[in-house]
Structure formats: structure tokens, C-alpha cells
Amino acid sequence: MPEDSMYRNTIDYQLSKIAEDDQGFKEQLVAIYSEYMRDIPQDFTHLIQEKNWEGLVQLHHKHKTTCHVLALQELSDTFEQVRGAVINKVPDQEKLLDNYIARVSTICFTTLTQLQEIVSS
Predict the structure, then answer these.
(1) What are the tens digits of pLDDT across the range 82-102?
(2) How deeply is 4 buried, as exposed, middle or buried, from its count of CB atoms within 10 A (0-12, 13-18, 19+)?
(3) What end-to-end distance do the CA atoms of the chain give, in Å?
């Protein structure tokens, strides 16, 4: 994002590039990604609690583009870390998975706040 930017945050910059000055389209993107940010923590938590590892892989795959478009590398990395923890059967897995749930919730809440800032300007 340019230093002397007219954008509210990195997500605003990313969506502005995609929307190419079409404010209506940008608002549609904000609505879509806002819904994703509300759904991801719930889906992620449910899948972990159910130990549905295949479902978790599918959730990650479903949101790879979201992570890329919104520059959410940390969210994508978290999905990968959970996968690695499960495959490698790390010690204290339950505590670690709880930490991943908290991280995903925080990332999505922060992102949702940034998305809301874009449409409230």
C-alpha cells in the first residue's frame, strides 16, 4: 500500500485495485468478504471441535482466494499450521488447537472491522 495513501487500510487498497474505481462493486466485495469473516471463525471452530480434518482442509481451500485478495497471509498460515499439528500429532494438541481457534477469531474480527471502515467512510 502506498505510504501517502488515500486508502483506509491494506484491505481497502486491495479491493480498490480489484474494483477499478467502481464504488458499487467495491461495496459488493466488502459485503461478500464481511460475510466470510463472520462465517470462518464459526466454521473453523466447529470443524476443529468435531475433529473434521478433511472439512478443515476444504474450508482452507474455499478461502484461499479470500486470503490472497485480502492479504491475509496469517490466516492462510494458521490453516496450514493446524494441518501440520494434526498430521504430526503434536503434544498438547487440544491447547494448541484452542490457540488456533482464538487466532482465527482475532484475525477475522480485525479484518471485519477493517472492511466496515471501508464502507463507513
Answers:
(1) 988 888 888 888 899 999 999
(2) exposed
(3) 18
